[in-house]
Amino acid sequence: MDQSASLPPDEVDKLDRALRSWTTSWQQAPESSLDPNNENGPIPFTSSSLLGLAYVRIYLNIGPHRLLETRDPEQIAQALMKCPDVERSDGVISALLYAAHALSIPVRLGVDRVARSQAFFWSVRHSLSALECAVLLSKWLASLQRSVNAVSLNASEDRMLHWVRCIVEEAFSVVDFEEEEVDVQLDPRGLGLAVLKIWAHFFKSNTQWRFINVMGASLQRYRELLLEEYRREPG
Question: Which UniProt keywords apply (predicted)?
Fold first, then answer.
């Protein structure tokens, strides 16, 4: 089977119904919360990140393209470049909501503060989920850039783009990227690059797990490869 092939619509519907059912059950549990500082412990918060990962995998099967086992940022970045594109659709919005929410949490709480204290509530599973959320979101934004002139944004896409823009602007206003000049383009492609930059900085700032630093270096290299590709495009 082609590992990059999209799932058949009936399979997507089945998975979507199953995930919605799980979400309903999760919401009914009294200890469930999206608060990282949940007094009931980290399991509800961690499970929400795995839910987001499940949604992401429906629309982008990044698993065969991660090569995380190599621990080599260059190999990982090159593999991510081979990931299939993310097509615009009504269904992918659900996955994008989780991807954007994942980014909003460290931005809201303080990217550098969360990075230094991840061991208390942000597990490795969160970071693995966030990696795939970052790739999905950036690829969807790149897809918008390519197609928006031919196909206008619908209401859901417009709201999603606005939310991502707000998150990125907030992050760039408070995060110290340790560069002389940080310029962010607010068009869809620029936002996609910004999303990768924020997550790369977050992962590289981790002080608990070396593996997370490797993920940060990999996203940074992936972003550099995308920039090189964009610069080669005509016009």
Answer: Metal-binding, Nucleus, Repeat, Zinc, Zinc-finger
pLDDT tens for 57-75 read 999 988 777 899 999 999 9
Q: What is the pLDDT of residues 29-59, one digit of tens each?
A: 766 666 666 666 567 777 888 888 999 999 9
Between CA 68 and CA 131 the distance in angstroms is: 11
- Tell me the C-alpha to C-alpha distance, in Å, between residue 41 and each of 29, 38, 194: 13, 6, 32
d(CA 18, CA 132): 21
Contact predicate 192/137, CB 8 Å: yes
CA 196 centroid distance within chain = 8
Q: Cα angle at 107 between 167 and 186, to 5 degrees?
A: 25
Whole-number Å distance between alpha carbons of 197 and 1: 33
Q: Counting every residue, how long is the chain?
A: 235
Reading the block at residue 35, the tokens are: 């608060």
The mean-pLDDT minimum among 68-72, 164-168, 173-177 falls in 173-177
Rounded alpha-carbon distances, angstroms, from residue 53 to 10, 94, 134, 173: 20, 11, 11, 28
**Tokens read off for 230:** 């964009």
Rounded to whole angstroms, the Cα distance separating 34 from 43 reads 10
Q: How far apart are the first and last CA of the chain?
A: 37
